[in-house]
Design brief:
Helices cover about 60% and strands about 5% of the residues. The chain has about 750 residues and is of the alpha+beta class. The chain has 2 domains: about 10-70 and about 80-120, no CATH class; about 155-285 and about 300-485 and about 530-720, no CATH class. α2 (about 55-65) runs antiparallel to α12, α8 (about 155-190) packs antiparallel against α11 (about 235-265) and α8 packs antiparallel against α21. It starts with 7 loop residues before the first strand and ends with a helix. GO terms for molecular function: chloride channel activity; protein dimerization activity. It comes from Copsychus sechellarum. Its main location: membrane. Pfam families: Anoct_dimer, Anoctamin.
Amino acid sequence: QNEEKWDFVLVSDIHEMGSEKEIKRKKFLDELHKKGFTIKKIEDTKLFYGVRAPLHIFQKYQCFLTNSDSRQQNSSASQDIPVTTRIRVVHFILQNTVTSDLEKLHDLMRKKVFEAAFPLHKNEEIRRILKKKWARWRVMFKEQPIEEIRCYFGEKVALYFAWLGWYTYLLIFAALAGLATVAAGATVFSSSQVSKEICDANNTIMCPLCDQNCSFWVLSDTCIYAKVTHMIDNEATVVFAMFMAIWATVFLELWKRERATVATNWDVYGWDEEEEELALHLINNSQHEPQLYQHSYFRSTIVLILALLMIMVLIGIAHALVIYRAVAMALFTQSEAGLLSKHADTIAVMTGAVLHYLTIVIMTKVSSHTGCLAGFSTANPPLIVFLCPAEKPRTFSQGENNFTVKIFIFQFFTNFSSLIYIAFFLGRINGHPGHYVRIAGHWRLEECHPSGCITDLFIQMAVIMVLKQTISNIMEYLIPWISHQLRKKKKSPKKRSMMLGEEEEAEDPCKRQWLNNYELNEVNNFSLFNEYLEIVIQYSFTTIFVAAFPLAPLLALINNVIEIHMDAIKMMRLRRRMVPRKAKDIGIWLQVLEAIGILAVIGNGLVIAITSDFIPVQVYKYMYSPCARENHTSMDCSTGYINNSLSVFHIRDFEPHTKVLPEFNGVQIKKYRDYRNADDYTYTVQFWHIFAARLAFLILFEHVALCVKLIAAWYIPDVPQKVKNLILKEKHSNLQNELRWVMPWKVPG
């Protein structure tokens, strides 16, 4: 039975005897034989080679590294070596075995000598536990079996699910705060003086929203939008934005503590990745010389220039979306369909959001088919392929970190460039009636929704998050499931027809198991990376512009509860087994999350200061309202704000080619949202007061939020006291043991 335990399976097409591919395959297998590997061949529609490493390789590994594996087991028995350790070591040796032609396994796979190499999902007890307690929908609200995940998939995957579970748990508090913010707005907006004034503005006639065949309109037409806007744009939003800045810090600090506890329990707290990598190289080749660290300012400059070029391309895509919205707005307003022309601005925003979602999907596919490291992918766009090798990473992890930073920046600009435009530029660079800024001298740049700029940002974020968490998740599950079904149908072995009187030959017990594993979807070094990237981008949506969309944490919470078990089902039932990798933390992703936390403070401060009407309302209350002039205490101090925030425009100053429908011809003065003088359309003094107040609020909000973040980070230690004391006692015990070996030599004869 022991002979049937195999560490890895290599799959190859059946090549002609004496062909170049057959010779290369034989050379590689001969190298494995020289290292003492046992190899079993099974022939079907493909050639399958089961690979098992000799015991002395793992004994060397245990001698080299004093880690959890060597402390917890007796190295004299091969069955005591954890399966995850066996797979990890064998995978490293397979990837670094060099043939006489100086070719490694990834070179041979690129040349189609081998088609696949994977460890096996085995019928172990631990797999049955994971299928029962983790990889099924009915246990969605139960605690994850992290220890079993670690024993089956290794520390790196287990830490991902521990982090995702911790993030999901803390999202409950953020979701409740977001719901409370919306509820506060919902109970306040009906009595909001600002929305009441908009709903009562039956005589306030506004400038047309397009140049051709658009009519003037009455401000009260936007009553419903005004109520929705003030549901998310009120004093509670400022408190919520501050809460989310603190929440992001507390989440990371508490995760650091949780990580320290988990790493200590797994005995990987002091594990050194570089030492393990050197040990594995020496096990594979005792003459190995370490690759030294390299750095070149020239290479770094080239990488920086190319990265900036990629960012410029993404910003160009955002500009294309801006052009689409301007053109769509002009076409929709001139449409004969009443629904299109009446709600042209909202429809333009929503279709623009759907287009933005499609660009995110396309650019994500582009980035997911790129790779910096050998074995990541074979379909690599040349720019990304060049970026990481140009930096000459010394180790796999260093290359992975470089790749993570670049792809995250790439994805961040893909997801947020359009949102940044809507939040901070929409309606601020479009000019004013009589002097609009135009694209190609023809299409007017779009304005904010009449009820406020934050409405556009709210719609954009709602559409993207809902689409990402419905369509994307459905496709993420359906594509592997359909692919698995097709592979099963295509690659299932065909029964050989029996001759009369011939006895059926007994099938090798390994054959069915190997075929079942081969029929599963392949995994690569991207598999876990893509899961991290998806959740980190979601975390960005949940924190950076959350002031404009307080329901983002709730959507993220619902998504993550589903995501955990969807990932579990994919890993256990639809994909081949991932190569277990050791880890003591979530790596470079922690620094990425900390950077997002700082961006969240800046982003939410800017949204409240620039996008929201919070600051203009406060300036009006304390400087221009009846309360400020006459010291009224009985009336709402925002009374008259709407009329104060509108500027006057004379019809005679329209541009010559502007044609409006003759609905309000008797009125020569119209209104528009801005703070400009009626005679020369220059900015009023109130505009500069508001500008100064916005700047002062931004500086104050960001400094207070960052100070609170720093205090929270100081107040919550990264490592629990219990873990510190445990490590201290362990160090003391190790030194005592060393002292016992030294003392006898000091005793006089």
